[in-house]
Design a protein that fits this description.
Number of helices: 3
Distance between the termini: 37 Å
Strand content: 15-25%
Number of strands: 4
Structural class: alpha+beta
Largest sheet: 4 strands, antiparallel
Strand order of the largest sheet: 1-2-4-3
Shape: globular
Radius of gyration: 13 Å
Order of helices and strands: HEEHEEH
């Protein structure tokens, strides 16, 4: 069964519970500053939780900044599964001291 793509109101409501995340019905993103010596560990931990959820973010690293972009690719929009991944990423970042 296809999970429903969230409406604009549903995305906006879900984003209020995910500080640091922004986006719309197409995708959600969060950029954090990660210390260079901790970036590899953070990215490995995010990879592990993404593997467990069988749902993976697009990750872009630019210096100390790491941007996570999440959407359900095959549906072309944001679903509840994307917010589950965002929560998992937040948990990793909280344990690693990610900020911004």
């Amino acid at each position: 069964m296809r999970p429903p793509v969230l409406t604009a109101d549903e995305v906006a409501a879900a984003l209020t519970g995910r500080p640091g995340w922004s986006g719309d019905t197409g995708r959600i993103t969060r950029t954090v500053r990660v210390a260079p010596d901790g970036a590899a560990a953070v990215l490995e931990a995010v990879q592990r939780v993404a593997d467990e959820l069988d749902h993976h973010p697009v990750v872009r690293q630019d210096g100390d900044d790491v941007t996570f972009t999440v959407w359900t690719h095959w549906l072309g929009g944001v679903t509840a599964k994307d917010f589950a991944l965002a929560q998992a990423i937040d948990s990793v970042l909280a344990g690693a001291g990610g900020s911004r």
